[in-house]
C-alpha cells in the first residue's frame, strides 16, 4: 500500500522524481547548504523573538483571563471560559491563517506577518496559560486570602501582592514548559511568511532543490535549543524547590 | 463591673439572632450577645458546636445566613456597610497562622499598615519592630516565615494583626496547631495583650488559659450559647447539664 502510494507519487510528480534521482536516494551532503547556514541561523533570533514576545503577551492576557475565571461576576467567567474553549477547540494553524489572511478582508488593512503571528500565538497561548494560572490560584491556601481580608486589604491589591506572586511561583515550571511548546509551534508561523527557522530552511530548500539537508539541519537546531532550554528549566525548578 | 461593660454605649460587638447554615446543617442558631470594651471572652465548647463559625461571623469571613452583627453600633451585615473598614478594626489570628510565605517577618507585619492605612514605610517599620520586640522576635525581622517554629509564626501573626492597631482581636484556636512546648510562648503573648485592655474574643481548648485570662466564658453547644458566665462561676458551678459533661471530659 505504502510502496504503491510512493510509486504513484513519484510518477505523478516529475519534480520529486527528478530531485530524488539527482541525489540518488539518501546521500546527505551538508556541504551543499554550507553557504546558506548563516542565513538559516539568523532565523534563531527571529524564532526566539517571536516566541518570547508571544509568551509575554500570552502570559499577561492569560493572567487577566484567569482572574476573570475566578470572578464572582459570572459574565466575566463565561467570557473567559468561552474564549478558552474557542482557542483550544480549533487548530492553531487555522487561527494563524484566519488572522493573517482573513482579518484584512474585514478591516481593509493588511497586517505584517510577524505581528499577525505574534497576535495569534499570544491569544492562543493565553487560553492555555489562563487554565494553568487559574489552577495555580486555586491551589493557594484560602487562609492567605482570609489573612489579607482581615487586614482590610482590597481585592485587587490582595490578588497582586499576596495571591498571584505565590501562584506564579508554584506554576513557574509549567509556564516554562508552555513556553517551550510555544517555541516548537512557532514553526507554524512559516506558513504566513515569518522568516523564522523553518521558513528559512524552506527558502533554502526551494532555491537549491535539496530538502533533507536544510530540514534536518534546522531540526537539529530546534532540538539543541529545546533540549538546552529544558535543561535550564529543570535546573531552575530544582533551585526553586530548594529555596522553599 | 460586668454590667457596666455590657452597657449599650460600651458594647463593641453585638450580635442579634445570628444564624448560620451550611446547606441543611444549622451551625449557629439565633445567637444574641454583646461583648463590651475591654472584655476578654473565651468561647469554649465541644467540637462541632459552632465556636469557630461564630467567631468567623463576627468579621464576616462567614456570611451569616440570618441575623445581624454590629461593630461599634454599625451593622456590618448591612449590604451598604464597607466591611473592610470594620475588619481593619478587628485583628484576627488563625489556627494555621496564615503568614505570607513570600514576605519576610517584618514585611508581613508592616503590610497592613503600609498598604491599607498608607502609613509611610519608615514609620511602619518602627511600629513593626516595636511589635516584634513585644512578641520577643526582634532578631527574626529579616527572615522568611518558613524559617520559624510554629510558636514563632503565631507570635508574628499576632504582631501582624496588632500592627493595624485594632480595637478587637479575634483568635481562632491560636494554639491548636502548635507542638505542646510552644503553646506557652503564644499564650504568654496573649496574656500580655489581655492586660493592655484590648477587647479579645478567643476560641480555645486551653481551659487553664481561659480560666486564668478570660473574664467571661461563652459556652457554646449545639449552635447556641448554653452558658454565659465569669470563669470562676463557670468552672466551679456550671449550671447546664451539657457544661457539666463537657468540663468532666476536659478537666
From TrEMBL, chain A:
Organism of derivation: Drouetiella hepatica Uher 2000/2452
Keyword Repressor recorded: no
Membrane topology value: Multi-pass membrane protein
Stored NCBIfam families: HEQRo_perm_3TM
Family the UniProt entry places it in: Belongs to the binding-protein-dependent transport system permease family. HisMQ subfamily.
Localization in the cell: Cell membrane
Regions annotated as coiled coil: none
GO CC entries: ATP-binding cassette (ABC) transporter complex
Segments passing through the bilayer: 48-68, 80-103, 109-128, 209-233
Main location: membrane
Gene Ontology biological process: amino acid transport
PANTHER family registered for this protein in UniProt: GLUTAMINE TRANSPORT SYSTEM PERMEASE PROTEIN GLNP (PTHR30614:SF20), MEMBRANE COMPONENT OF AMINO ACID ABC TRANSPORTER (PTHR30614)
GO MF entries: transmembrane transporter activity
Name assigned to this protein: Amino acid ABC transporter permease
Keyword Cell membrane: yes
